[in-house]
Amino acid sequence: MTIENEKVVTLNYKLTDDKGEVIDQSEDGSFQYLHGAQNIIPGLENALTGKTAGDELSVSVEPAEGYGERDDSRIASVPRDRFPEGEIAPGMQFHAQGPEGDLTVVTVTEVTDDSVTVDSNHPLAGVQLNFEVKVVDVRPATAEELEHGHVHGPDDEHQH
Questions:
Q1: Where would I find the beta strands (DSSP E) of 3-147?
Q2: In sequence order, what are the beta bridge partners of 10?
Q3: Does 7-67+125-156 carry CATH code 3.40.50.1370?
Q4: What pLDDT does 160 receive?
């Protein structure tokens, strides 16, 4: 079966940056997604279209087709008293309400006595992503998976 919209795809993959450092991997056949439902980054999804079970490929994804370019306007200094009591350190992440009311994750980049600098760019924004992928399986999505826009696992468990 060919990978196309409304198919559930099972992959093994290894994701590295341009330095060859492993960012993420799944090599046990547990990674599944619904093709065409924007469940994975566009650059990888586009490269997988038309492939079949057993195909192996290397895919380099530019930031624009991954998590986007870094945007310095997404870095802000916030008064320290807007954070919970206790230690705040670079690398910590918090949920914050964006300007349009949506929740976003921010990463602390700097802390002073009076302020906390946070970055709401995705941690992989601006990074070239390099995938080594093996297509393990391709199957039609169920009606419920199509309705929900994501894969359901065994016994109809949601895979988020």
A1: 7-16, 22-34, 56-61, 75-79, 93-97, 103-111, 115-119, 129-140
A2: 32, 137
A3: no
A4: 45
